[in-house]
Amino acid sequence: MQWRLFLALLAAALLGAGAQALIQQWQWPIYSLLVLALPLYGLSGQLLEPLRRLLRALEGAVLSYRDGDFSMSIAAGPSGPLRQAELAALLRAHQELGLALREQRQQLARRELLLDTVVQNTPLALLLLQEPGGEISYANIAARQLLARGRSLAGLSLASLLDDSPETLRLALASGQDQVFGMSENGQEELFHLSQRSLQLQGQPHRLLLLRRMTRELSRQEVASWKRVIRVISHELNNSLAPISSLSHSGAELARRAQTERLEAVFASIGERSRQLHRFLAAYAEFAKLPSPHWQSVDWPAFLAGLLAQHPYRLEGAEPTRPARFDPGQLAQALINLLKNAQEAGGPPEAVSLAVEWQARELCFVVRDRGCGMSEAVLAQALLPFYSTKRSGGQHGGSGLGLALAREIAEAHGGRIGLSNREGGGLEVRFCLPQ
């Protein structure tokens, strides 16, 4: 009778006290069902236990994959439902997935190692900044040597790092624009090309800075440019001297025959050819024979009026009154070339402006326009002699000497010249001299 009492109490606990009458009426069938169900429940628990272990193992493997650990594997047991075909196929698929993920992880690790080796050893200085604070996330060897003499830069603020850096470097990095600028390094003037890009990494804004040394590249390109200009001059000389020689022979023959009525036209053609050749050679000689600057105090009204007579421009700010010293003739020549380039840049003529600014111990002339600006490739080569994207014509137009001559004049004065694209379109040329 004890087992009947136990079953009655169990049924009351499961079904509630309100069902006792029904249990008493149907107690024998219910007792029979409970007697049969309890062993089946225990047996089902034993049968399903391997499946539960398998599911827990699969859950652990998925969590390991989420954490980047692909080394976990699941082995099938010797008995039970793991021997069924469906579960065996699931285990095989899991093992293949783990192997594929491990192989991909190894390939990515090899690629990251190769990429990091290339980036670290490139001569291009590379900085990755986390915006908006400017914290340095990554810096390669060239960047560390340029900015911190090889020390680690990770976690430092770029603004604090540049406190003791040259002003030109600070201004260039703060501009947010691609540009060419000069900086004194180890007692020598070094030209750099700066490229800046904004990007998103893991949902966070970053800024990528690339600094490329241009002085050695410019020197190499200048040698190639001189070779190219020698070929150009030789070609132009041949094109002009051959007709002059032919016309001289024709004139001599006409004089021998006493046909003097045609001599005037022959001499006029020879004179025109000679003048064209003289203008062509004068443009190159002017660049090659730049004299040393003759320093003197500048008369600002006369100097600015002379520039305006050559090329119209809009003066930004008040007319300067602070005394300054430089070679007015050479500075006028350089600024006329810059204003001419600005007028030919494709923007409205009234947008061409000239500003005279003092920065610390430097006097800066800033020429701005609203033209099409320069591409990164053109910006990197714009200061090379004889490099031009314009068709030949005029004194300097198309000869590639305008910016190169301005650079020579700036360096002869101990100064520098920098180019940068303006936000909203156009170009800014900053011509700075020590005072």
TrEMBL record:
EC number(s) per UniProt? 2.7.13.3
Under the heading PROSITE patterns, the entry gives: HIS_KIN
Q: Which InterPro entries match?
A: BphY/WalK/GraS-like (IPR050351), HATPase_C_sf (IPR036890), HATPase_dom (IPR003594), His_kinase_dom (IPR005467), HisK_dim/P_sf (IPR036097), Sig_transdc_His_kin-like_C (IPR004358)
One Pfam family per UniProt: HATPase_c
Q: Where is the Histidine kinase domain?
A: 232-435
A GO molecular function term, named singly, is: ATP binding
Provide the alphabetized UniProt keywords: ATP-binding, Kinase, Nucleotide-binding, Transferase, Two-component regulatory system
A biological-process GO annotation: osmosensory signaling via phosphorelay pathway
> What is the reaction catalyzed?
ATP + protein L-histidine = ADP + protein N-phospho-L-histidine
Q: Known CDD domains for this protein?
A: HATPase
Recorded superkingdom: Bacteria
- Kindly provide the name given to this protein in its UniProt entry: histidine kinase
Q: Which organism is it from?
A: Kinneretia aquatilis
